[in-house]
Design brief:
Blueprint lengths: L4 H34 L4 H28 L8 H29 L5 H16 L3 H11 L1 H17 L3 H23 L2 H11 L3 H24 L13 E8 L4 E6 L9 H18 L8 E4 L2 E7 L3 E7 L4 H17 L17 H9 L1
Antiparallel strand pairs: 1-2, 1-5, 3-4, 4-5
Helix pairs in contact: 1-2, 1-9, 2-3, 3-4, 3-5, 3-6, 6-7, 7-9, 8-9, 11-12
């Protein structure tokens, strides 16, 4: 019996993809359980978990479909292959729904319009389409819309809404999405056979390349997003309220509000209160270590200490990005005013340039 080496290789590659993607989906569902215990938002992890789960199911359906076509010599139009093909297409739509939902949940501006669009396409495919040709037309006409939405939205999130480590992670995720889309298109028969004919190589080799590329892209995509503990950091700009810069004697040097129409009246009273609360808590805890975060229901107060001043950020959530930015702001502030701070005489107007320092870091 002659063994089709490329066919066997591609069979094994697809099984590896199925196993790897199922594993990543499982990791996301475990992440959901941990997020629930920690009181963090679950829905982004749910969307990603569904994407990987249903993509693995799509591969499984197509694997079984190829088995019927290649080993049982059944035509795709026969009942069992038709059911398998419909299952594969509908599972692909479910996976796309998960990824689009995740994206819209982070973006927060589309009111889940693209998720609803995919749900509509899925429902239409379930109840009204039964032939392979009709299902193919459905995917040709509707799938490009959410794919383009994902590409442009991830580019927007990457370029506009992120900085530092988050931007680096989103850069890898964006490259993985582009890579996955490319290799998925490469695996389509029409594309694959045309490229193979143009290059004069076996179509099975193109299939192997597309499978390896898809596997690498999906692994990168999965592990990048598994490295996030929460996705609320994408909206970090929307969760800030006010910044107070306080001198070492408790006097307010500068106040900046991220809330429109907020007034600086009473900034001295507020800074005195913040300083007093900080000192009382340190006395109660009998510690010399400075207080870093104070949690008051829906407000979090984060302290960053310098040689001559303290910066206080009032925000809605204690995010890691705030700590790194406050440290950067503190360094910039004390360096800019290094001549004035050690022997400050009480002139508040001296610190007006602090506005630009804050906006350079946070706005």
């Amino acid at each position: 019996m002659q063994v089709d080496l490329w066919g066997f290789t591609n069979l094994m590659l697809r099984f590896i993809i199925i196993g790897a993607v199922f594993y990543i989906a499982l990791m996301f569902f475990i992440k959901i359980r941990h997020a629930r215990k920690a009181g963090r938002e679950l829905s982004p992890f749910l969307g990603l978990g569904l994407f990987f789960l249903f993509y693995a199911m799509t591969c499984l359906f197509f694997e079984y479909l190829d088995y019927h076509a290649n080993f049982l010599y059944m035509e795709y139009t026969e009942p069992i292959p038709t059911i398998l093909y419909k299952g594969a297409i509908l599972a692909a739509y479910c996976g796309m729904i998960g990824l689009v939902f995740f994206t819209e949940r982070i973006l927060g501006k589309t009111k889940f319009a693209f998720t609803i669009f995919n749900l509509g396409a899925l429902s239409y495919g379930i109840f009204f389409l039964y032939e392979q040709a009709d299902l193919q037309l459905l995917t040709y006409y509707t799938m490009p819309i959410p794919i383009l939405f994902l590409v442009f939205t991830w580019a927007f999130i990457l370029i506009i809404k992120t900085k530092g480590e988050i931007r680096r992670k989103m850069g890898v995720a964006f490259a993985s999405l582009i890579g996955f889309s490319f290799f998925y298109i490469l695996s389509i028969d029409l594309v694959k056979y045309n490229i193979a004919g143009w290059l004069g190589i076996e179509a099975s080799l193109i299939t192997s390349i597309s499978y390896v590329g898809s596997l690498v892209s999906l692994l990168l995509l999965g592990f990048v997003f598994l490295s996030f503990e929460t996705f609320t950091e994408f909206a970090w700009k929307d969760k800030m309220r006010e910044i107070f810069i306080i001198y070492q004697n408790g006097i307010s040097l500068f106040h900046y509000s991220f809330i429109e129409k907020a007034s600086s009246d009473g900034a001295d009273l507020i800074t005195s209160g913040l300083t007093g609360v900080k000192d009382i808590l340190m006395d109660m805890m009998e510690t010399e270590n400075p207080l870093k975060v104070f949690d008051h229901r829906d407000l979090k107060i984060i302290f960053e200490y310098g040689d001559h001043s303290t910066i206080v950020l009032v925000c809605e959530e204690n995010l890691n990005i705030y700590h790194s930015k406050l440290a950067l702001l503190m360094n910039d502030f004390e360096e800019y005013f290094q001549d004035a701070l050690p022997n400050w005489t009480g002139d508040i107007e001296l610190f007006r340039p602090a506005r630009k320092l804050i906006e350079d870091v946070f706005v």
